[in-house]
Amino acid sequence: MTTPCIICVAITGSLPRKENNPAVPITVSEQVESTHEAFEAGASIVHAHVRNDDETPSSDPEKFAALKEGLEKHCPGMIIQFSTGGRSGAGKTRGGMISLQPDMASLSVGSNNFPTRVYENPPDLVDWLASEMVTHAVKPEVEAFDLSHILKAAQMHKTGKITDIPYVQFVMGVKNAMPADQHVFDFYVQTVKRLFGDKAQWCAAGIGANQFTLNDWSVSAGGHARTGLEDNIRIDKTNLAPSNAALVRRVVDLCDKYERPVANCSEARSLLGLA
Questions:
Q1: How far apart are CA 243 and CA 12, in angstroms?
Q2: 3-class SS string, 5-47
Q3: What is the DSSP-derived secondary structure letter of residue 234?
Q4: What residues form DSSP beta bridges with 66?
Q5: Distance from CA of residue 111 to its chain's centroid?
Q6: For residues 80 and 40, is the Cβ–Cβ distance under 8 A?
Q7: Confidence band, pLDDT 50/70/90 cuts, at residue 87
Q8: pLDDT per residue over 111-155, tens digit each?
């Protein structure tokens, strides 16, 4: 039986602003509305950041709480995944929202270069974020910007710092980090299966123009796909994406092409071991 494809929509992120694409949702109400459209288009996971009124990134737990309440009301059953990424805050402020008990939270387990800076994820902070996720029964999504991050996730699983079989997302196409290279992608898939078993679930995200390429590789290889305005503000080379839902529909079309059903929320929860 073909595994249904889980579509994750990364709605906002920390970087794109209205001046880059007016469709980027900033306020909580905009985020809920944009997520609802993506939910109806086929997304079963929402990857969420929050912003201040001036569009700068935030880690404010109160903003996350308001967003969570709105998403639960308007997107029933959708998997809510909060970001603990380093652009939104420093140190333990990055995990201040984990106690709100979203279904999932992102977990970067190692450092790497970004376009203009080092994305720092020191071991003590990684361990603390992981322990908070264990304490509050939040499933981590391991964001792997490098092969070493997959191996680190395996070590953390072996020592009990990650309790479930890790759900790894390959992030490719960040300038100065791992480019979108299909040979590397294939090796990532092989590595996940070798370390966690053939039935381990995995996902991939492509940044900028690489988004659709990674969507295609992931869907065709039996993995899951991330899309959304956080990673890419365009629908093609010349046109801005009109919405997060439009980018989700593009992945749905790939699922049709490769004869894979789109996972509904119940199927996505079952695949990821979520209640």
A1: 11
A2: ECEEEECCCCCCCCCCCCCCCCCHHHHHHHHHHHHHHCCCEEE
A3: B
A4: none
A5: 17
A6: no
A7: confident
A8: 999 999 999 999 999 999 999 999 999 999 999 999 999 999 999
CB burial class (10 A; 0-12, 13-18, 19+) of residue 250?
buried
Q: Give the model's pLDDT for residue 11.
A: 98
Kindly state the greatest CA–CA separation across the chain: 48
Contact yes or no for 171/202 (Cβ under 8 A): no
Q: Which amino acid is at 233?
A: I
Cβ(231)–Cβ(207) under 8 Å? yes
Residues 180 and 238: their CA atoms lie apart, in Å, by 21
- Strands 139-144 and 50-51, by their bridges, are unpaired
273's tokens: 């071991």
Helices (H), 145-229: 147-158, 182-196, 211-221
What's the rounded mean pLDDT across residues 252-273? 98
Q: Is residue 167 within 8 Å of 45, Cβ to Cβ?
A: no
Can you read off the two tokens belonging to residue 39?
A: 């939910």
At 90, list the tokens.
């420093």
Tell me the pLDDT band of 90, cut-offs 50, 70 and 90: confident
126 Cβ contact list (under 8 Å, min separation 6):
107, 108, 109, 110
What is the pLDDT averaged over residues 164-182?
Answer: 97
How sure is the predictor about 1, in pLDDT bands with cuts at 50, 70 and 90? low
pLDDT score at 91: 87
Residue pair 170/144 in contact (Cβ under 8 Å)? The answer is yes
**Strand boundaries in the chain, DSSP class E:** 7-10, 45-48, 50-51, 57-58, 79-82, 104-107, 112-113, 118-119, 139-144, 167-172, 202-206, 224-227
Tokens read off for 45 = 């996971």
- Distance from C-alpha of 107 to C-alpha of 125, rounded to nearest angstrom: 10
Which residue is listed with tokens 């992945």?
251
